[in-house]
């Protein structure tokens, strides 16, 4: 990866942080010195249950999903189109252990990893980290609450309609099988709902 591209990607993280809270020169230097962006190719895993769940990732651009496997079936748990932090489930009171989730790039994606150890160092040394962390957790909690409500809507058609209402991104980029598993329905059911909605709009 070109040095200029690395600078651009790290600056994207800094811009995100500064949108949440003013950041100090020392904090900026710490980020610039320690973060190393990565490029993950389409369909490759960012994290899987054989990996230590030691990092969170800022998605600068691309398309990423989280999923778990149950009885051989993949169940998509969330989808990210970028400009946010992602990570696998990790109990805050436990030591780092392998992830129960898979994180997968659905298209070529540029990410900036941050280890939990490094994040804890930021908390210890830079007061703005506490504000930034609280705001990110608030955003994550809100998104998780939306997903929780969505999952409880009994009508498959209404779940899909609500999904479309909640997401302003280009859903056509997401494979239908991922949307179907995210919404807890069969692919055939999703295809039927989409066809019906197209006919209703005609």
Overview of the structural elements:
By secondary structure, this protein is α+β, with helices and mostly antiparallel strands. The protein has a single domain, classed as Jelly Rolls. 47% of the residues lie in helices and 23% in strands. It has seven helices and six strands, in the order H-H-E-E-E-E-E-E-H-H-H-H-H. Strands 1, 2, 3, 4, 5 and 6 form a six-stranded antiparallel beta sheet that branches. Helix 6 crosses helix 7. 25% of the residues are buried. The model has no long low-confidence stretch (mean pLDDT 92).
How far the N terminus sits from the C terminus, by CA atoms, comes to: 47 Å
Helix content: 40-55%
| Rough outline | elongated
Major sheet summary line: 6 strands, antiparallel
Can you tell me the CATH superfamily?
Jelly Rolls
Number of separate helices = 7
Structural class label: alpha+beta
Taken as a percent bin, the fraction of beta residues is: 15-25%
């Amino acid at each position: 990866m070109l040095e200029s591209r690395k600078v651009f990607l790290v600056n994207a993280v800094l811009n995100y942080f500064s949108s949440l809270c003013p950041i100090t020169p020392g904090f900026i230097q710490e980020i610039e010195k320690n973060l190393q962006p990565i490029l993950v190719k389409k369909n490759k895993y960012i994290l899987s249950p054989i990996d230590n769940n030691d990092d969170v990732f800022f998605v600068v651009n691309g398309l990423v999903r989280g999923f778990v496997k149950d009885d051989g079936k993949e169940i998509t748990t969330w989808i990210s189109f970028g400009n946010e932090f992602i990570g696998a489930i990790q109990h805050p009171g436990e030591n780092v252990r392998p992830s129960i989730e898979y994180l997968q790039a659905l298209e070529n994606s540029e990410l900036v990893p941050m280890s939990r150890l490094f994040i804890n160092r930021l908390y210890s040394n830079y007061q703005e980290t506490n504000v930034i962390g609280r705001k990110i957790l608030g955003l994550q909690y809100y998104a998780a609450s939306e997903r929780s409500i969505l999952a409880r809507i009994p009508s498959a058609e209404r779940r899909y309609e609500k999904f479309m209402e909640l997401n302003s991104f280009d859903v056509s980029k997401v494979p239908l099988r991922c949307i179907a598993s995210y919404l807890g329905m069969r692919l055939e059911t999703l295809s039927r709902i989409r066809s019906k909605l197209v006919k209703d709009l005609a």
